[in-house]
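User: two proteins, same treatment. go.

Assistant:
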Amino acid sequence: MDTAAKSAATESPQEHLAAILESHQPSHLLSVSEQPVPLLEHWCTDHDCALTEVQEVDPLPELKKLGRFDMAIVAEQLEYMNHHAAEELIGRLRNLHTQSLVVVYQPQLAPDRLRWSRTDFLGMGLRHEASFENEGRRMVLYSYELASYNFVRTWNNPRFWANPEMWGYWW
């Protein structure tokens, strides 16, 4: 997303998340969190943005009833889910519900058996956005942006095909 002009060292997680919201200007936002996220409520009120909140221990059944959103934020959710269910949640959001996803993760809240590593997030196609530490409490933001997820490769064009006239043909 590379949206915040300031360094993560000089801002708070809330400021960083607000900068992401400002850069995307979503008109319909999805929040998946067991607890309300006041920043999202305030931002949506101030910016005429519809906020849909899913506050379930298992959010997957509720998500199946919902459509697409401009952006989704997952906060204080993965810390309490097993890996399989959490991967399904991220995959469902990323593939069906939105093109922009932000995950706010606090590893110290998760029991050791449920704790996610950096490579777990990277393996799901998310990019490390920022890290914050305050009084022994750590918070990490990861993001996914469909438009910038898969970089353009110079070789992926008809010039490098054996039969360039067949470029774009689906057999």
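Protein 2:
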Amino acid sequence: MRRFLGLALSLLLLSLSACALFPRHDPLNINVVGIEPLPSQDLEVRFAVKLRVQNPNEAVIDYNGVALDLEVNGRPLASGVSDQAGSIGRFSEAVLVVPVSVSAFAVLRQTLGLGQTQSLDNLPYVLRGKLAGGALGTLRFVDKGQLSLPKTANFTW
């Protein structure tokens, strides 16, 4: 029994010291800096979402894929993926472009969810995403905020 406890304690100390070998990384700073229309098909609208990704760390971040999910007013609205690859230097930034799709059904859900009284001002949104691959593995990020659509916004399908 003593031998088992000694082995367990040794493994615990070894695992704790191994964690110290891996430096901690600050989270990435992600901001949506642009949205441009893309050619659409039938019952969907497509956009190119431009993300500014800031790396506040001392290590370069390599990635080989990007995925995004956008919720507005607590409901899924858009999603997209890209197999682009690259690096974001230490204490540096890059702009990534990810195509996203918005289905007519997602817009219908959003419209029904707004009801008669809610306006298009200050709608809560959550953007979840990930940068895949690299030495650090997959890095996930979340951006939350409020968005307001212009009163002259005209969406056609």
